[in-house]
Write a structure and sequence with these properties.
By secondary structure, the chain is mainly beta. Strands 2, 4, 5, 6, 9, 10 and 11 form a 7-stranded mixed beta sheet that branches. A hairpin with a 6-residue loop joins strand 4 and strand 5. The protein is globular.
């Protein structure tokens, strides 16, 4: 099992920045990809960004490319999401997820952290 705990959400104004953190513990060797997803009220959960734990390669959704940056700290088993130029449409609960290196599915999820962007 991998345990994930997010932090760093909050209420900000449009144009502001926030940095989300995700601390991983447990059988962290069993995950090879870490990612951020978000879910706005009444909408399905959507992929935001992912990072490979071994080489740090990244992938982003078009909606956040150029504004959000995902990074990792191997020593601390932590993943971060730097969000710049926030927009009201970025308002959502943000979730950290780990992809299981055996099933290749995002089997591990954090509890989520709320990000609210006011106009």
């Amino acid at each position: 099992q991998v345990q994930l705990v997010e932090s760093g959400g909050g209420l900000v104004q449009a144009g502001d920045s926030l940095r989300l953190s995700c601390a991983a513990s447990g059988r962290t060797f069993s995950r090879n990809i870490m990612a951020w997803f978000r879910q706005a009220p009444g909408k399905v959960r959507e992929f935001i960004a992912a990072i490979a734990w071994n080489d740090g390669s990244t992938t982003y959704a078009e909606s956040v490319k150029g504004r959000f940056t995902i990074s990792r700290n191997n020593a601390n088993n932590a993943v971060y999401l730097q969000m710049n130029g926030l927009r009201p449409e970025d308002t959502a609960v943000y979730y950290c997820a780990a992809r299981n290196s055996v099933t290749y599915k995002y089997d591990y999820w954090g509890q989520g952290t709320q990000v609210t962007v006011s106009a």
